[in-house]
What does this fold into?
Amino acid sequence: MLLNAAKYGAGHDIEVSVAREERWARLSVHDNGIGIEPGDHDRIFARFERAASSAHFGGLGLGLYLVRQIMDAHGGSISVESVPGSGATFHLRLPLASRGEPTQGV
It folds into this structure.
């Protein structure tokens, strides 16, 4: 996600935040770049899918797909909020383990 934020962020600052939401940890990455059309928000998490032309940005369209697979395997999720021209914010959510409780997938 950080590489995507740097790639699509058009040289603008990238904001990273971490928060606790009840039994969840949330990592958010925001860029101030080109943004993503609303109709592409779900599609970009599929294998070999991209929101922007590979001719301009390179890549295989696997990064967000792999992140989603990892998040799913650990009981978490990934989502995006974006408006074209206003950047994108990706949110990763993972469940927190209680003391003495093993983490899922470990």
